[in-house]
Structures are given as C-alpha cells and as structure tokens.
Amino acid sequence: MVFFTSNLKLPSLTNNEPENLLKVNDNIKVRDSKSDKKPRLMTDIIKDIEEDNLTNISLIEWVYLLFNKTEWDKNNPDKSVITSQKIWQFAQVNHQLRFRLFWRLVINHFYPERQVLPPSLIESFTTFKPSTKKGSESFNIINFLFQSNYEELAKLSCQLYLQPNQLFCQYSLPYKFNLEDNLTLVETIQILIPIILKKSINNKQISFLIETLNILENKAQLKAVENLLLNLNSTVGCNYPNLVAWLKNNYSITGNNFRWQKLSLEAKNSLKQWIGAVNYKDFEKLVNLIINKLLLPEWEKKQLISRKIFWSNYSDQIELEYY
Fold this sequence. Notes:
Number of strands: 0
Mean pLDDT: 81
Largest sheet: none
Strand content: under 5%
Helix content: 55-70%
Shape: elongated
Oligomer: single chain
Low-confidence stretches: 1-22, 28-34, 317-323
Number of helices: 19
Order of helices and strands: HHHHHHHHHHHHHHHHHHH
Structural class: mainly alpha
Number of domains: 3
Distance between the termini: 63 Å
C-alpha cells in the first residue's frame, strides 16, 4: 500500500491559543463535510432556526453562525434568547454542533474576553437537556468547571482511572488553561486526588495515585503530597507499603532531603508516623512469626508480646531510628 503525502497541506498556526486551535479544528471538520450546499446569509440561517428547520443548516453554516450570532443578537435582542434555546435543543441530537458549543463554552469560561460564544448561547446553556450518557457526562463536567468544583472532577478521574487531561480528551473538551498559584487546570485537579481517596481506597487507586504523583512537577507534587499526608491516616501506609516506599524515596530525610525541607511541619510529623507505622507492622509480623514458629519458653513469649505492645505506642520512635 502506497501513501501519497506530497499534496497534504495542514493549516498554518502561528499562535496556538485555544481560539486559534478552535478555528483550525472547525476548518478541518468543514472540509470533511460531504455537503455541497453553499453557505447562506445569516438571515436565512436564522429563519430555519425560528421555523424549527434546523436540519437544513449545514455544518459550515453552523460555524458561520457561531462566529456571527453575537452581532446578530445585538440587532435582534428580542429574538436572541429564543433562537439560542432552539440551537441548544438541536444540539441534543447533533453531536457536531454540540461539540463546537461545548468547546467554546469551556474556552469562554476561562477566557471570557475572547468572546468565542454569544452571551445568549452562554446564558441558555442551562436549557440543554442531554439525550445520551456521554452528553450528560460532558454536561456535568462543564458545570463542574463553571462552579470551580475541581474536587468532583478529581473524583471522576479516580472513578475512571484517567488523568484529568485524558478525561477531558475523552469528552472532547479543552483543558490547557492556567489557574491561580501558577498551576494548570490539570494540576489543580490532580493535587486533589489524595483528598478524594481518603474516603475509600484500594490497590488500583494507590497505583493511580502514585502514577499521578510521578507525573506532577515539583511545586504541584509538593501540594499533592501535603494533601496526602494531612488527609489520609497513617494506617493507610500499613496496608499499602508501596505508597510509603514512594514517600521514603522522594520525601524522607534519607531520600530527597531538598523535598523533605519543603514539607510543612505538620506534613513532616505525619510522614514520620506513616513510615513508623509500616516499620512497626514489620516488627509486629516478625514477633508473631517468632512466637508461632519457634518453641520458646512461656516467659520468653510473654516478654516478646510485652515488647510488641510497648512499641505499638512509639511507632514514630521506630521511624526516628530509621532516620
């Protein structure tokens, strides 16, 4: 099989801002359309919307309308909202239109000054009634973004075992935005994952958490580790030694001393308890093994049990000896 690529021309993109990316995406999709119908005037397109003949509108006409409806709304304020509501109603069954509306909604939320969507379409978004499971999930994700409810997005990432960027890609939504404290949208969601896992945790979630921690840059990773140490009980470390091993390698004094110094005092104390809890559990297993496997005099067994009970109250001291 031979592929001819000499005539392949991609649209130039000198500025990769979301709005320009959106225009390139629209152009590619429009060229792929099988419709030969030439785009009509705005008044003709609006007439089809008002008369509920929305299936007559081609994809290129929808794109044209989305870029020009703001001006049309200014000249027709009495019709701006009702036509936008009809557009959202049609988007329930037209995934190409829905994709473009959702994409612009998210961009408008983070960059409202770019005005990539008419105000009437933004305000009437609440009238959209999802008709599919994926449409409903996309609708919920957008609402979480509008509410800055990043914990719910972190919860969804944990449920699907998808990093936030993968989650947004799965639902065809943009995600490359910078938020407060020099964190990206994705990082803002990722650092909340440890807080979400404090309610329920299993081996797969621990692996997902470690994957997330490894992905994060230093500043965001530190915030995630703080959330981990200050929200999850040290008993979690007893059950998941691989997580404690990661913390030892990256944040203990004998691991990365620079990162240890960056931790808050509360997080340092918590990390000691985490490591100590694991060390004590190993000590407890060893004592139990000796008692059960060796034929020891009764007084020696009692002495070992007594020491085990004593050190259970000083697990952080075991950790300090580790340091």
